[in-house]
Structure formats: structure tokens, C-alpha cells
Amino acid sequence: MAHYIPIQKESHLNAGFTPIKNLSFAAGMTTVPIVIEEISHVIEQMSIALQKVSSNGDTFYELVAIQSLTPQSNLFVLDDGRWIGEYKPAFYRAHPFSLRPDDHKKQLNLCIANEYVVEEPTQDDARFFDDSEEFSPRIKEITDFLAHSLRGRKITLDACEVLNKANLLAPWPIKYSEPDKQNKPQPKTLNGLYHIDKKVLNTLSAEALKQLHSCGALEVAFAQIFSEPRLKKLTTLQTIHRQIKKKHLKQEITTQEPDLDSLFGNNDDLFSF
């Protein structure tokens, strides 16, 4: 697990970081947290679901995008760390930075995963502070991005809790098949995800639906339902990955990408920095 440290003038005045060039760190992420603002972008390439999370003694549901049918796998990341989807979720674009409360929990500090700090930056690196000893323009952009993302996450978590209290969440065991060593399909199940119970949704009163709409929960509910067919695209991506590994196309893949336009369409990054 990454160890985050606050970026402080006393310690990092002359330090910086190397911008992330690939997503190798995300290669084992079957799901990725997303916020409501991203939904319209994400569902063009991924199915979305809800996932139960435990943190600091609390248990809650968060909205996630599904990136693989196999645990500890991310089909949107190639072996060399390249992202092959059109839209890259904000969670990844924020890495390795985070806004975290200070020891007194009175304010948020801009933090970075310790291993990404460069004590003596080169021209290819980005400095934390400028010549006036203020955060550099790049760091200010990142801070604004994280603040926007954090607000979005709070809204999204609240909407997920409303869905939970309305008894709209049901376990979603996703069944799929995977070839064994003899290339025979074997039934598998991806567990731990939740989706919207359409039967319960159809019984809600107009007043209940209005309440769901007011906090964004209804948008999450319908988006989750409509995104489910995107699971079929993961089968296509699985085939692409198997072909790459089977035929050892490491050299070819650097010059010829999979044709993803037919899978995902085109998207612009949301509140990008």
C-alpha cells in the first residue's frame, strides 16, 4: 500500500515528481472508483456497479467501473502500462496525489505517494514549488482537480447510501467462462459487486423517485442498469489480451493498437489537468 506524505515547503522546496507515463500501478485493479460526473463518459466503455468498502471501521458502498471479469486484472491496461480505453477515470489521473486531512483533521493537505518524490528534479520532472516558493502552476492545477474530485466523491457516496437505504442494491454475481489449459471453457463467477434491483425500483412511489432524483441517486440507478450490456466488451478485450500473450506480439503491439473505436467511441477527459 502506498505511503502518502504531505508536500511541505520545509521538506520539498527544491523537490518534484516525475509525471506518470503509464498505468502499470493499476494493472491489478478489477474495478476503479468513479464519481457521478464521470458516468456519461465511463458507460461508453465500461459497465458500472456498486461495491461494498470497509475503511477506518466504516462500511459503505461506492460507485465503480468494471475493468475485468477476472479478479486482480485490468483489461484496459496493457503489459507495458498503456491505457487502451478512450476515457481515463479521474481516479487514475489523480495518481500519485491525494488530499488528506492533517493530524488535527482541521484542514486538507496535498499529499503524494512517497516513492514518487524526486529530490533532485531534472528537466523531465515537475517541481512542487516555483521560484517564489509558492506551489507551481502544475501543482495548483492538480490541487484544483483533486478538490473537484473530492467534492464529487462525497456527492457520489451520499447517492450510493440513498440507494442502499431504499433497498435498491442487490448482489450481482457475474458469470463468465474462461478457457483452461486444454482450451475448454470453464464457468467462473465474479463476486462482490452489486447492481440495481429493477423489481424494487419499479415499485417506488413518485415521491420516493423524486427524492432519489434530488440527490443524483436516480441517475446512478438508471446508468447502472443501462451499462450492464457493456460487460460483453470485456470478453472482446479478454480475447485481445490472450492473443497478445499467445502470439508474443509485444513488438507488433507498439505499432498496431487494437481497434477500440468500435468498442468505446470517442470521449474527452472530464475536469482534466
Gap from first CA to last CA = 25 Å
Number of helices: 10
Q: Indicate the overall shape.
A: globular
Mean pLDDT: 88
Strand order of the largest sheet: 3-5-4-13-10
Strand and helix order: EHEEHEEHEEEEHEEEEHHHHHH
**SS class:** alpha+beta
Strand content: 15-25%
How much is the radius of gyration in Å? 21 Å
Number of domains: 1
- Total beta strands: 13
Main sheet specs: 5 strands, antiparallel
As a percent range, the share of helical residues equals: 25-40%
Description:
- With 273 residues, this protein is of the alpha+beta class.
- The protein has one domain (4-264).
- 34% of the residues lie in helices and 22% in strands.
- The protein has ten helices and 13 strands.
- It has helices spanning 9-12, 39-42, 90-94, 137-165, 198-203, 206-214, 217-227, 231-247, 250-253, 261-264; strands at residues 4-6, 16-17, 31-33, 48-55, 58-66, 97-101, 108-113, 117-118, 126-127, 169-171, 174-179, 185-190, 193-196.
- Strand 4 (48-55) and strand 5 (58-66) form a beta hairpin.
Keywords, separated by commas or semicolons:
273 residues; alpha+beta; 5-stranded antiparallel sheet; 10 helices; 34% helix; globular
Write the layout of secondary structure elements.
Blueprint: E1 4-6, H1 9-12, E2 16-17, E3 31-33, H2 39-42, E4 48-55, E5 58-66, H3 90-94, E6 97-101, E7 108-113, E8 117-118, E9 126-127, H4 137-165, E10 169-171, E11 174-179, E12 185-190, E13 193-196, H5 198-203, H6 206-214, H7 217-227, H8 231-247, H9 250-253, H10 261-264
Antiparallel strand pairs: 1-7, 2-8, 2-9, 3-5, 4-5, 4-13, 6-7, 10-13, 11-12
Helix pairs in contact: 4-7
